[in-house]
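During the reporting period the student researcher (J.K.) took over the structure-prediction task from the postdoctoral fellow and processed the backlog of single-chain submissions. One of the processed entries is reproduced below for the supervisory committee.
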Amino acid sequence: MNSLIIPLNDWAAGERKFHSHAGSEFFQKFDNSEILDADVNVEIRVVKDGRNKVEADLRLMGSVTVPCDRCLDPVEIPVDTTPSETLTPGAGDVDWDLSQAIYDFICLSLPLQRKHPEGKCDPNTVRFLSHRERKNEEAASNSPFAALKGLFDSK
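J.K. obtained the following structure tokens:
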């Protein structure tokens, strides 16, 4: 049994716990090229009431490795989130596949800027970017629009 698929048809009500792991092979199934590697432990607590409602409390802990937004070298980002999901199944037997939800919750837990701590990026890349920023600043100061810079700054 895939431990991310919860079989709801073999129990009437109560609580069950499931454990799984989301590694790089898990993310490859979703064709996510940004996740280079992953090591996320998945704990699932499922509560099924007797009135056709099922709730899952998740605990996702570990890390994923993604390209740094600054230098493109791999950077490990910690993951620690506790989302919840609710399912109201229709009539009949159902298996609840939480794979997509777990994938989404892990991706949403990542910061918008994924980069190494200051000073930890590849020094050659940082040097190149600094040189490029200086050239862009020089080009901007020679622009005919440079005189408009700061026009709307508050005084």
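The committee noted the following: The beta strands are 5-7, 14-23, 37-48, 54-67, 74-81, 84-87, 95-97.
J.K. will present the remaining backlog at the next meeting.
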